[in-house]
Automatic annotation (TrEMBL):
Protein name as catalogued: ABC transporter ATP-binding protein
Keyword Transmembrane helix: no
Annotated organism of origin: Cellulomonas edaphi
Domain of life: Bacteria
PANTHER family cross-referenced by the UniProt entry: ENERGY-COUPLING FACTOR TRANSPORTER ATP-BINDING PROTEIN ECFA1, HEAVY METAL TRANSPORTER
PROSITE patterns: ABC_TRANSPORTER_1, ABC_TRANSPORTER_2
């Protein structure tokens, strides 16, 4: 289980008047227990939802409070936390680092006690799972946007994390690829926590968090959560 206890994220920002940098609140304090199989996080751009997602596997650390994954503190046990919690970014280009899909997935398996041949076989198996077997050795940049996002997912899931956190994984995709990725995420055995602007996808979650101005302002079932978010956006436009 992922538990946040009064987690607060801050940053230094320049003083417009030219004085000393000032501390600004980006998120929190937030206290949550995240146990449901499918959780969606929604909110406007700049609301803090991506910061919340990054807290969950230690990509962002709290200035105060704690974030724990199965009793591991992200501030002191970051490596162990990231073995349990995989993270997929909005753009696969921020995540794919090797020249070919096969090499990229194999890189994610480097921590496992596998021989080179075993790692190659496991990487090919992971690519086949996502329909990329025939693209294993082509240049990664030659893949379509949807295929690159599948590669990013394959690389993360090959290491078999217990939890998958995705930060707007379908934002850059067309409708066909959004459907492919949404269906794939829905079928995973792992707990999946997704930051999304797709309210239809959010409505299929077990639980939805609405983030506004760095705070979780609604936490509950999908239908009322989406309605709360729509009301927030309507108030902004008014």
């Amino acid at each position: 289980m992922i538990e946040l206890d009064s987690a607060l994220v801050t940053a230094y920002a320049p003083d417009p008047a030219g004085g000393a940098d000032r501390v600004v609140r980006l998120l929190g304090p937030v206290s949550l227990q995240l146990a449901e199989r499918r959780i969606a996080i929604i909110g406007a751009n700049g609301s803090g939802k991506s910061t919340l997602a990054r807290l969950l596997n230690g990509l962002v650390l709290p200035a105060s409070g704690t974030v724990r994954v199965d009793d591991l503190d992200t501030a002191t046990d970051g490596r162990a936390v990231r073995r349990r919690v995989g993270f997929v970014f909005t753009s696969p280009d921020a995540q794919i680092v090797m020249p070919t899909p096969l090499e990229d997935v194999a890189l994610s398996l480097r921590r496992l006690p596998l021989s080179a041949d075993e790692r190659d076989a496991a990487a090919r198996c992971a690519l086949a799972r996502f329909g990329l077997a025939e693209r294993a050795e082509v240049p990664a940049h030659a893949l379509s946007g949807g295929q690159r996002q599948l590669l990013a997912l394959a690389s993360v899931l090959a290491a078999e994390p217990d939890v998958l956190v995705c930060d707007e994984p379908t934002t850059l995709l067309d409708l066909r690829w959004r459907t492919v990725v949404d269906d794939l995420l829905a079928g995973l055995d792992q707990q999946v926590i997704v930051v999304t602007h797709d309210l239809e996808a959010a409505a299929r979650a077990d639980r939805v968090l609405v983030v506004d101005d760095g705070l979780v302002v609604f936490d509950g079932e999908p239908a009322p959560a989406v309605e709360h978010y729509r009301a927030l956006m309507a108030a902004v436009r008014a």
